[in-house]
Specification:
Number of helices: 9
Distance between the termini: 34 Å
Length: about 270
Amino acid sequence: MTSSEYGPSDQRTYMIPGTEELGSAGPGAAGFSPMDNLEQVAQLVRSCTDCPLGRGRTNAVPGEGNPQAEVMFIGEGPGYQEDRQGRPFVGPAGNLLEGLLASIGSNRDDVFIANMVKCRPPDNRDPSPAEMAACTKYLDRQIELVNPNLIVTLGRFAFGRYFPGEGITKARGKLREKDGQKIFPVLHPAAVLRREELRPTMIEDFKAISEILEGKIEDVGMEPGVTAPAAPQPAQFSFIDAPGQAAVSTAPAETSSANVEDAPQPEQLTLF
């Protein structure tokens, strides 16, 4: 996909770390790099060293997909396979996501997929608030450039970007709006890989995505589908609400044994 495919831009620029003293020179001067299109954003992500995650990555994972997508999916962060390939959702959770998209007549080429953080946290732990903040400028710009009709948040961290302090288990499946943007929160696919009983809920929520795009669900706050089963709250399930924590924790990140895109693949990944 070439930069010419990404459509018009508004000449957004980004200061290269370590060149702050050149900031007064303005856009286009030394120390500034443009974010005029998605490819330029991706190039900046690949060279980014704004947080410690950049030092331990194999590959940064900027995000990918249709630059004019109606739907943009936002997950948590890269897992093992994503770090190796430099692409989002290519592990077991990605396989499930592709199956869910296929169930509503879509595929990953129709949508845009990104994450809250662009590099894999070490030991598959939760991303820290500082790490998510370092990636915010990239994700913000990707959203501006794609300009989707609907953002689907995958799991509690992405949901917490828009509605901090709310739990994903109760919020999932309800069409919301924030600053004029439609937001539809769903569980993270890795949660389904860990708890098979959540699969019908996930399938129902993806059917609702199709209905939202078709205009069958328009009222913000309308709840399509079924209510998710009450989920236990083990600390390692970063993609489900953590006990006693806001959607984006302000505490130091804890080591997690289950990364959102790195959950072990169950024997069956069929949708039904």
